Amino acid sequence: MELIASYDVDWCGDKQYRKSTSCYLFKFLNALISWCAKKQLVVALSTCESEYVAGCLAACQAVWLEATLKEMEIEVDRPIALFIDNKLTINLAKNKVLHGRNKHIEANFHLLREQVNREALKIVHGSTELQLTNLFTKPLKVDRFIKVRSLIGMVKVET
Fold this sequence. Notes:
6 helices, 22% strand
């Protein structure tokens, strides 16, 4: 009963306001059950900060999904795996000591670190090539688009 998440961001994708778009998706029993692509409320000063903010959004969804499944008497394996392709963000989520580099990050985004420290979530480095959320955040070549689309269970429907 594994709940798996992937999240990513397009740093400063909004050229007018320089805001990033966060994206996450969750799979349960190999089926896509939740996804979101949302413009961040803050302007991130680095890709790491932008990824960290996206991670907080994914962590909130993970907590909610786990509680919802528990209400339905479905226990999920813990910790829930969050796949990300940014190693600095992974270190930031696991390590409290990097505070010199992240003093500017709002305290409310540290929910991700709290969930990792409680061992409710596990941050896992995933290859950029297999990052499922790239489908929602980046322009992809056709062959890669088709591959990622199939990995999340989307199929082309002929009308």
